[in-house]
Amino acid sequence: MKARxxxxxxxxxxxxxxxxxxxxxxxxxxxxxxxxxxxxxxxxDDMNRQWRLSFETRDEAVAYAERRxxxxxxxxPHERRIQPKSYAANFRWNRPPx
Length: 98
Hints:
By secondary structure, the protein is an alpha+beta fold. The protein is built from 1 helix and 6 strands; from the N terminus they run βββββαβ.
């Protein structure tokens, strides 16, 4: 079983950064999902895909994986770059279209 440790990004529906500071440990898929021919439902026989653990720090998640003998890979979070903008820039006469 292999797992990944990462910090989730904010969803498209969020404007704030809530729920993005914790570290998650989740299992990577071991088998493909299949489609039921009768009903069209998607299913999988991989029961390890159902768990996701949350930790305060990266080190706690790594320590847990090592204690349990879980092979893992750590994905470091990307640094968020904020370009400062002013509200007045929305009304510039030479603003680029779009």
